[in-house]
Amino acid sequence: MPENSQLQFLWKQISERAKNIISPVSYSHLIKDLEPVDLRGRVIVLKATSDLNAASIMNKFAEKLREAIAKCNLGLSDFRLVVDGSVAFPLEVEEDATVTFRTSPINKGFTFESFVPGSGSKFVYAAAKAVAENPGETFNPLFIYGESGLGKTHLMHAIANYLAQNAPEKKVIYTTSENFLNDFIDSIAQKNGAKFRYHYRNVDVLMIDDIQFLKARTQLQEEFFHTFNELSAQNKQIVITSDRPPKEIATLEERLRTRFEGGMIADIQPPDNETKIAILRRKALDRKCAVSDDVLEFLARDSGHDVRTLEGRLTKVIFASKLHEEPITIALAKLALSESVSEAEEQEDVTPEKIISAVCGYFKHSREDLIGKGKKAEIVKARQICAYLMCEMLSLPLVSVGNILGGRDHTTIMYARDKMEKLESLNPHIQKEIDDIKNIILKK
């Protein structure tokens, strides 16, 4: 913790500036008695006398205080209020190495540039970009809903990647409702509720994927409600995704539903045929493969609504081209897709266990190492290839693959899948390893 003299020096300059832009009565009643207690990075922590005073400051004078901080040019970017014994404004506690929070990795490839907006996604794309450019100032909260596989998670990652590049000083947390739940349960078991609240409330942008899984968990909804309120009071950005709109999450508490509906609700629709072709063209370019328009149109036809299925068709055709050493034509595409359709007959014996066995045998790792918690680079690489093959060859849901591979979160599996898919197209060595393992699996 910084020395008290340093804190007093910083606060004196800030409070003098605040005195000039806040009315004398309000300053005397609310601001004057604030006490600087800590620094967290570029955030000064101020202790208020009560929850009521803290809430009044956040609701009425937060921007004025931020303006004062900015004008002082002290290298600070924001402030945080705490109150003794408060739940809404908890005192910061000392760091404890035993307290950890689950993180969901950000896919660096999921950017606004790599997202292909169509007629059914232009609005939500524009809304997400506006949030990234001005977090907390445009649509807050931003609630994105739609079927699985249409790009909701892509847009959340795009927001995170944009901020990392253009506003690296902002603290961004991207997580899933599953991680939020597990962190909350751990905080109860470890009696670290204050740290849990500080972790999720001391942010500039909070993004939670699959919020529908918060339903029917009353205590968790209570915690999220207070987190939502504090972030909103500080004009911090909240982004939420779901597979359905708030009104259709049957057991969601009314007060949460009301707050979700108080922001921007944007649905993402399945792509039309033109958008599918544009997506395929972009994916082919990313993988440095030349695919003619007639093949792209063929792949887009009757491909369903899921963008992942669409990408899977392209992957099968590219793999067939490499396997048969032939250029990509409609004839080859028909052959590749017909082979995939008959895979159920040809590969009835292809199971997750056979994929694990093939990967372990190829890289000479034990099954225990592969599905365990080891983080050596060679183990992580094999595990990621295994996840990629389960998704691609068996079309298993991410959650199922995560459960098979040691109970890992679905976002970890998604990251592994997307990383290996990209590396396969860019790295000849990785490409050969994956092709060799596929051949081992198919010949078993």
Strand arrangement within the widest β-sheet reads 5-6-7-4-8
Residue windows where pLDDT falls under 50 for at least 5 positions: 93-98, 341-348
Number of strands: 8
Oligomer: single chain
Structural class: alpha/beta
Cα-atom radius of gyration: 25 Å
Put simply, the count of helices is 21
Q: Termini distance? A: 61 Å
Major sheet: 5 strands, parallel
Instruction: Please report which band the strand proportion falls in: under 5%, 5-15%, 15-25%, 25-35%, 35-45% or over 45%.
Output: 5-15%
User: What pattern of helices and strands is seen along the backbone?
Assistant: HHEEHHEHEHEHHEHEHEHHHHHHHHHHH
Helix % is: 55-70%
Q: In one word, what is the shape? A: elongated
Average predicted local confidence, pLDDT = 83
Task: Describe the structure in your own words.
There is one protein chain. The protein is α/β, with parallel strands linked by helices and 444 residues long. The chain has 21 helices and eight strands. The chain has a five-stranded parallel beta sheet, sandwiched between helices. The protein has a three-stranded mixed beta sheet with strand order 1-2-3. β1 and β2 form a beta hairpin. The radius of gyration is 25 Å and the shape is elongated.
